[in-house]
Amino acid sequence: MTALAFSLLATVIILAVCVFLSRRGRRRDSDGEVYGIEHETAGSFEWDPLTSELSGRIFDRKDSDFVASESSRQITRQFQRERTALALDWLRAVRDQVNQLVRAHFRASRENDALKPTDEIRLWVEFLLFQLTSGILYLLIWVCGPSRTAALFGYSLELAAQLQKVTEDILPAGRQVTAELMNNEQEPKNGDAAG
Amino acid sequence: MHGELKHEDVEAARRDLAERTLSRIRGDFARLIYLASMRNYNTGEYHHEGLACMFTESIAGRAIASCHRDVFRRLVLCPLKELVEQLELYASSNCSTPSELVRIWERLQPYRVTVPLECSPLAARFFVSNIRTALAILQSRHLRAHREALSALPDR
């Protein structure tokens, strides 16, 4: 019982810290100024196939080993800071996408009477597990850098894919509604970015 | 207007561009610079006289944009080690030394305008970060080689 209470407490603390870090990261957005890389567009994230493929590269350890072997400590440190900032932005983008998907699912599910409570609970469990894993991943990236967190990153991606599958399994007929809702949500966002 | 374009025509223009022009350019980095240079800074549209005559302006533009995206994707996804090699190859095929390239590129940062229009901000930032690191590595290599050459000189 005590162990369970401790686990719950630890989970809540990790989640709280992650939410705090995630919001803090978004507010500050100061890495761009420090490293000379524009960061102003990070908020207006657009998901494309290249971004999905990019994750493997951001978390790849070979690049970091190569830089360490070829250049000074200063350059290596700067490279690691840049990769960390990129990895955190990438993770935030994935979390935003998943949150959007789940929000759209719940909106669509309100109009559907044929939903099974067990499926909804399953979705919630998957969603919480994803939030927890990505929260831990966020912390680990922040502390250790992306190249040392590759395994957990893979697991987070699997969970995200699983979540997408679960939402589709539960609401096959509502998939179109979900897609439309997500499109509607994205349109004003893109408009803002352009403006 | 784009809806009227036939996929086969764009593919044919793409093949033509790849076979006649891009295959003669050494290295993906040089190809990227070449493709980006055909883009109008104000409209974001591509223009290639020969290709436009052979096909149409729109088909040529779509074909160039597609090649641009492909080459950029390859460079973004290639390991940093390969990117450094690409930069070295680019420097050598443009009659400049890597150190000259580093000096000018650190100031002008021309690689920023090589990013395709549709590219996500994250991918663009990743690319710019990689190029900056690759340039720093080239500089380090050059300095190391210079020091080694100096130390190899006989003492007077």
Description:
The complex is a heterodimer of chains A (195) and B (156). Chain A contains eight helices and no strands. Chain A is mostly helical and 195 residues long. Chain A has one domain. The longest helix of chain A is centred in the middle third of the chain and has 38 residues. The relative contact order of chain A is 0.13. By secondary structure, chain B is mainly α. Chain B has one domain.
How are the secondary structure elements laid out?
The complex is a heterodimer of chains A (195) and B (156).
Chain A: H1 2-28, H2 31-35, H3 49-58, H4 61-70, H5 73-110, H6 117-144, H7 150-170, H8 175-194
Helix pairs in contact in A: 1-6, 5-6, 5-7, 5-8, 6-7
Chain B: H1 7-20, H2 28-37, H3 49-54, H4 57-77, H5 80-93, H6 98-108, H7 121-152
User: Biggest sheet of chain A, in brief?
Assistant: none
User: Which protein chains are joined by the largest interface, and how many residues does each one contribute?
Assistant: A-B, 35 and 24 residues
Q: What oligomeric state do the depicted chains represent?
A: heterodimer
The largest pleated sheet of chain B is described as:
none
Strand residue content of chain A: under 5%
Helix/strand/pairing category of chain B: mainly alpha
H-E order of chain A:
HHHHHHHH
| Total tally of structural domains of chain A | 1
Total number of distinct structural domains of chain B: 1
Number of helices of chain A: 8
CA-atom Rg of chain B in angstroms = 19 Å
Helical content of chain B stands at 55-70%
Structural class of chain A: mainly alpha
Distance between the termini of chain A: 54 Å
The total of helices of chain B stands at 7
Provide the residue-averaged pLDDT of chain A.
71
Q: Which value, in Å, is the CA radius of gyration of chain A?
A: 19 Å
